[in-house]
Write a structure and sequence with these properties.
The chain is of the alpha+beta class. The chain is built from 13 helices and 14 strands.
């Protein structure tokens, strides 16, 4: 039986299949003339990797009676939706049963029924190995806003550092962009940089008074990020790095492959917290929000900065195709050109809110 690279969304596994360069038709998703992988031959020892991942789950009958029902999961759903390894739950179930056939023959209930991760309810383990320990994001937020702004016992910094291992190198010849609204003054290259420390206001990656250069991957994202109004004049600067720099990829911090070097139980326990960090660092303030709402992400960004990294890359909520980069040292980049744009029209996307969607952890 052959699966194919399209059966997977996990980049690590897709690459393993791709390097074999074997073309054919997929028996699982039906794709034709694609890179395929023989699950019976299993040249890349995928079964061994999946068995290590399955080993962190225990069937519901083996969990303590106090284990909450809401933490019980279906393995095929976990592999497709939570871990984002497979393209669909159906494909996940079929491939995992064939790839790990001996395991499935002996323990069919683990895959067919509900399972859980014991460590998710082990406070001793969580205190030592969870990024947020036994706390929620709202606990961390409240603590850093109201109790201790510069030090917190709500974060395991040594664990956070492990997940900051996903780094990206920006080459000296790569371009990034920055936009500013200016309806009365023409802006030059020198005016497109980060504000001076005394003029620096709070941002998602910097506290007030500490300068940070916010850049984007492309012009469209830059224009969207400044949230200009109709007929505003927006100047977009083109920036180039003076040297290769290394940034931490928070955009994909919750999508790290479970088949890398990170312990799988450690990875599983922290996935939700990592997703929260990725989403919070990308979330812009709304009109009625306080600058204090940036404190949690400023703490995380400052921790990354303290480890010697040059910046962070994070999602853009204003442009689905682009992303943002916060560069800690403005002198790493130089603006080499500016183009002015007039905003001609805006388009709003919206959805009706229910009570559930308005609530936040």
């Amino acid at each position: 039986m052959n699966c194919c690279e399209k059966c997977f969304t996990d980049v690590e596994l897709r690459n393993r299949i791709s390097v074999l360069n074997k073309k054919g038709n997929c028996d699982y998703c039906g794709a034709e003339d694609v890179n395929i992988y023989d699950v019976e031959l299993d040249e890349q020892n995928m079964a061994e990797d999946f068995l290590e991942l399955l080993d962190i789950y225990k069937h519901s009958s083996l969990l303590e009676s106090k284990y909450p029902d809401e933490k019980l999961v279906s393995i095929p759903a976990e592999l497709s939706s939570t871990w984002k390894i497979f393209s669909s739950e159906i494909v996940a179930e079929k491939i995992i049963k064939d790839l790990c056939q001996s395991f499935y023959d002996e323990f069919p209930e683990v895959i067919d029924e509900m399972s859980g991760i014991p460590e998710l309810c082990d406070e001793t383990y969580l205190n030592d190995y969870a990024v947020l320990k036994i706390f929620s994001w709202s606990d961390f937020t409240k603590s850093i806003k109201e109790n201790n702004r510069f030090h917190t016992n709500h974060i395991n910094e040594s664990i956070l550092e492990i997940f900051c291992s996903e780094r990206k190198i920006y080459k000296a010849d790569e371009f990034l962009y920055r936009a500013r609204i200016s309806n009365h003054e023409m802006l030059t290259e020198k005016q497109m940089g980060a504000p001076k420390p005394r003029q620096a206001t709070s941002g998602r990656a910097n506290p007030e008074g500490i300068s940070c250069l916010y850049l984007t991957s492309d012009v469209d994202t830059a224009l969207n990020e400044v949230r200009a109004g109709v007929h505003d004049i927006v100047y977009v600067g083109k920036f180039i790095a003076k040297k290769d720099i290394e940034v931490v990829d928070l955009k994909n911090i919750d999508r790290l492959s479970p088949f890398g070097n990170i312990d799988k139980t450690l990875h599983a326990v922290n996935r939700k917290s990592l997703a929260r960090i990725a989403n919070e660092i990308a979330r812009p303030l709304r009109r009625n929000d306080s600058p204090l709402d940036y404190l949690p992400t400023q703490y995380i960004s400052d921790f990354i900065k303290s480890k010697g990294h040059s910046g962070i890359e994070y999602k853009s909520t204003m442009s689905s195709d682009g992303y943002n980069v916060a560069v800690f040292d403005e002198s790493d980049y130089e603006c080499i050109g500016v183009v002015a744009y007039e905003i001609k029209s805006l388009e709003y996307a919206y959805e009706e809110l229910t009570d559930d969607t308005q609530l936040r952890d």
